[in-house]
Every structure is written in structure tokens, then in C-alpha cells.
Amino acid sequence: MRVYSFDHQYLGHTEEAYEDSFVVRKRVIFHDHRYYPYVAIENVEHDQVRLTMDAENANQLEWKKRPDYEHHLWDPLELFYDRGHGVHDPFDDTIP
User: Fold this and answer.
1) How far apart are CA 17 and CA 73, in angstroms?
2) Quick check: is 16 in a domain?
3) Into how many domains does the chain fold?
4) Beta bridge partners of 36
């Protein structure tokens, strides 16, 4: 399926789906990908996925690795703090 931002910009195509997120692959020659949680989907229609964010925000997100969902099933909030996703963890004592 082709994936578009809220402002109708083409972001790539779905490559793989997991129980909690899906991978969007960009470009044919130089591969780039992002993992988006299903909550980032605004709608799915006619073989197209539209996200809830604009292209600039979708491309700036640091979701280049899949969050560690398996180890945080009991605490959904912890998913947002997985390292490498650009979200500050207020409970991380190692970051001032």
C-alpha cells in the first residue's frame, strides 16, 4: 500500500506489518524506512494509507528502529520512551 502524509505527500509504501506497527520503505535505490505505530494512521482507503501528521513531521521522526513492544506490553507509556525514537524520557536519570 502507498503511504501519504496528512498534507497529501507520498512517503513510501508499506513493506511489513507487525501487530503494533508497520514499516514504510522509501525510495527504490537508496532505501530509507520508518516504523509507524497504527495510532499514526488517519484512514485507509483504496490501497492508500493516510497518516495523521504532515510530511515534514513524518520525515523528521526518529522511528528508524522498531520500538521494543515485546518487553513493554504491561506499560504502554514506556513504549514512547524507547531509546532511539527522539522522545525524551523524564524518568531517565542519565540525561540531565
Assistant:
1) 18
2) yes
3) 1
4) 22
Q: Kindly compute the dihedral angle of the four CA atoms of residues 64, 38, 81, 35, in this order, to the nearest 10 degrees.
A: 0
Residue 5's pLDDT band (boundaries 50, 70, 90)?
very high
CA distance 88 to 17: 26
Lay out the sheet containing 2-4: strands in order across: 32-37, 21-26, 10-17, 2-4, 48-51, 41-45
Q: What is the pLDDT of residues 75-86, one digit of tens each?
A: 555 555 555 555
State the sign of the Cα–Cα–Cα–Cα dihedral 29, 30, 34, 35.
positive
Residue 83: phi and psi, rounded to 5, are: -65, 145
Range of the domain at 31: 2-66
Is the separation of the CB atoms in 15 and 24 below 8 Å? yes
Grid cell 521522526 is found at 61
Residue 57 vs residue 3, higher pLDDT: 3
Query: Any idea of the CA torsion for 8, 4, 6, 60, to the nearest 10 degrees?
Result: -110
User: Are residues 49 and 14 in contact, defined by beta-carbon separation less than 8 angstroms?
Assistant: yes
